[in-house]
C-alpha cells in the first residue's frame, strides 16, 4: 500500500501525490540518520505539493520536537487535529491521539510562551545577548539550581549531551564547548535538575520560531553557566588553574601572539610554540624579533596580565613612529576577549566582572631554556616568567637572576 493512500472524496493530482510521497520518503531517511534540518525541509516540500496528509504534519512536528522548536511543533500538531476533525486528511490512519499526547508533553513551555513570551523577547531586545544570557544564567543558578556547583555542572552535562544528540550546529557546539566528551556522554537525567530543565526550555521556547536565534541564546546561557560552574564557593573569582589549551595562541586576524597569561600573580599559560619568533642576536642569545606589550585587565578582585608579542615591523610603526598605536592596542584587546570566547577558555576572564584596561609597553623579550626575561627600554621594569615563576621586581635584580642562570 502506498504511504499516500487517499479517499476519493478529496480530489488530488496523482503526479503531485507521487512527488509528495517521494519527498516524504526522503524526509524519513534524513530523520533516521539524525539530520533533522533536511528532514524538515523535505517534509515541507511534500506538504507544498500534496498538503492533505496529516501524517506528514505529524512527522514534521516530531522533527521540530527533537530540535525543541516547540511553537512550530505545536502548530503542526494542531494542524493534524484540525484536519482530521474536519475530515480534510486523506490518510487512513488517524494521528490525532499522538498529536494530543505530544501537545501534553510541551504544554508547560507553550503556556509560558503565551503568558511571558513578549516580555522575554523584549528583554533580549533591551539588554542585548550578553546581559540577557547573564541574567537568565544567574536566575537558573540561584532560583532553580540552589547555587549548588555540583548541580549546576550536572545540568550543564545534561544539556550538552542533548545538544550532541541533536546533530548539526548543536552537536558542533557540544563537541567544542570545552567539556570533555567522556563527562557528558553517559550522564542520565537528574530529578534535582527538573525544575531548571523546565524553566530553561520555557525561556528557549519564546524564541523557537527562530532556531538560529534560539541556538545562540541557548549556548550563550550555557557558556555563562559553565563559567559559574568553575567558580569557587567562597566568591566570584574563577580558579587560577592553568589553561588547558593545545598549541600556540595566535590571534590570526590581529596578527599577534599571546606569549604569557598571568592572573593574580600566578602563571596560567606559557606559549611554547613560538621558537620561530626568536632570532639569535650578536651575543648568541635568543631574542624576540619584535616587542611585547603587557595588556593589564583589572576589576576589584583580580588582575589579569596578558603579554602579547608584536612583530618587528608592527613594533617599529607603533612605538618608534607612533602610528596608530592606541587604535592598534584597543583592537588587539578586543581580539583577546574574542579568542577566549571562541576557544571556550573560561577561567581567565570572569563573566560577571567589569574590567578596566591599561597597557605597559614596549618590552624586549629574551629566552633561555624554559625561562623568559622581559625588560623595557628604560630598564625601569622587568619580568621573569616560566611555567612556575612570575617575578616583577627591580629590573637589575631580575636581570642578574636571568643572565646568571646556567
Automatic annotation (TrEMBL):
TPR repeat residue numbers: 20-53
Organism: Pseudoalteromonas nigrifaciens
Gene3D superfamilies, sorted: Tetratricopeptide repeat domain
Stored InterPro entries: TPR-like_helical_dom_sf (IPR011990), TPR_rpt (IPR019734)
Protein name in the entry: Tetratricopeptide repeat protein
Keywords of the record: TPR repeat
Amino acid at each position: 500500500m502506498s504511504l499516500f493512500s487517499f479517499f476519493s472524496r478529496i480530489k488530488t493530482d496523482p503526479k503531485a501525490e507521487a512527488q509528495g510521497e517521494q519527498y516524504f520518503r526522503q524526509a524519513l531517511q534524513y530523520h533516521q540518520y539524525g539530520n533533522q534540518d533536511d528532514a524538515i525541509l523535505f517534509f515541507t516540500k511534500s506538504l507544498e505539493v500534496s498538503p492533505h496528509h496529516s501524517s506528514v504534519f505529524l512527522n514534521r512536528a516530531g522533527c521540530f520536537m527533537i530540535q525543541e522548536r516547540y511553537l512550530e511543533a505545536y502548530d503542526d500538531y494542531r494542524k493534524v487535529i484540525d484536519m482530521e476533525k474536519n475530515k480534510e486528511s486523506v490518510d487512513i490512519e488517524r494521528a490525532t491521539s499522538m498529536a494530543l499526547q505530544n501537545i501534553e508533553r510541551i504544554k508547560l513551555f507553550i503556556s509560558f510562551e503565551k503568558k511571558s513570551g513578549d516580555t522575554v523577547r523584549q528583554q533580549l531586545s533591551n539588554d542585548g545577548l550578553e546581559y540577557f544570557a547573564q541574567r537568565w544564567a544567574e536566575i537558573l543558578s540561584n532560583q532553580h539550581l540552589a547555587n549548588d556547583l555540583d548541580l549546576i555542572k550536572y545540568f550543564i552535562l545534561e544539556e550538552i549531551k542533548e545538544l550532541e544528540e541533536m546533530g548539526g550546529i548543536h552537536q558542533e557546539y557540544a563537541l567544542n564547548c570545552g567539556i570533555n566528551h567522556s563527562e557528558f556522554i553517559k550522564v542520565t537525567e537528574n530529578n534535582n535538575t527538573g525544575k531548571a530543565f523546565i524553566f530553561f526550555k520555557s525561556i528557549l521556547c519564546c524564541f523557537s520560531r527562530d532556531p538560529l536565534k534560539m541556538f545562540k541564546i541557548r549556548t550563550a546561557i550555557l557558556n555563562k553557566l559553565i563559567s559559574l560552574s568553575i567558580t569557587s564557593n567562597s566568591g566570584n573569582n574563577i580558579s587560577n588553574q592553568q589553561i588547558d589549551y593545545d598549541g600556540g595562541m595566535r590571534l590570526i586576524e590581529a596578527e599577534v601572539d599571546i606569549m604569557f597569561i598571568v592572573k593574580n600573580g600566578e602563571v596560567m599559560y606559557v606559549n611554547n610554540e613560538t621558537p620561530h619568533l626568536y632570532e639569535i642576536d650578536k651575543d648568541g642569545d635568543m631574542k624576540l624579533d619584535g616587542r611585547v606589550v603587557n595588556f593589564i585587565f583589572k576589576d576589584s578582585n583580580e588582575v589579569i596580565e596578558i603579554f602579547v608579542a608584536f612583530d618587528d615591523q608592527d613594533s617599529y610603526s607603533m612605538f618608534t613612529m607612533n602610528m596608530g598605536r592606541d587604535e592598534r592596542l584597543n583592537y588587539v584587546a578586543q581580539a583577546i576577549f574574542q579568542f577566549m570566547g571562541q576557544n571556550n577558555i573560561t577561567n581567565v576572564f570572569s563573566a560577571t566582572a567589569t574590567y578596566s584596561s591599561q597597557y605597559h609597553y614596549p618590552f624586549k623579550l629574551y629566552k633561555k631554556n624554559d625561562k623568559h626575561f622581559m625588560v623595557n627600554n628604560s630598564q625601569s621594569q622587568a619580568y621573569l616568567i616560566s611555567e612556575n615563576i612570575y617575578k616583577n621586581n627591580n629590573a637589575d635584580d631580575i636581570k642578574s637572576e636571568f643572565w646568571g642562570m646556567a
